[in-house]
């Protein structure tokens, strides 16, 4: 499965600083062990103050240093996650996969619940996992604004399912441009504002 995911910076960081020679001071990194990063971030969930910094480890290699302050009184914890900083040439080849017009874009439900389901399914050695999204029909016949998302995992002896009955659909880029008369930063008129805590993901098998 190939997955392209993105979220707004404000949804993760309360304070963010970045300097580079790329456009918008962007820095692109390849994480050597994504499971290690997930494990560390789970530890940081209840920490009142977490800092993530791109630095160099003891071996002078690039790393993401995750520092947790206030875990316990007078105890601070830091973890280094090895990364590889991508060159500008490599960055040019990174782009979201093309999406057909019939592909539905949705706002993912509670990521914590979805992550727990995936972790439990992983221990059962399921050989297939299917994500199905269907529009919810409206009584007035108007276009659907929500969908039903079903995550189905199957193995030889059993199957497991997680269902969300009302998942918000994302507005496709350029969908309502013709009807939008707002000015300025695009938050005027009737155009809905983007939520900073929204996470979107696109997956293809």
TrEMBL record:
It is found in: Nucleus. Residues 188-198 have a biased composition (Basic and acidic residues). GO terms for cellular component: checkpoint clamp complex; site of double-strand break. Transmembrane segments: none annotated. InterPro entries: HUS1/Mec3 (IPR007150). Pfam families: Hus1 (PF04005). One of its GO terms (biological process) is meiotic DNA integrity checkpoint signaling. Keywords: Nucleus. Residues 173-205 are annotated as: Disordered. This is Putative Checkpoint protein HUS1. It comes from Trypanosoma cruzi.
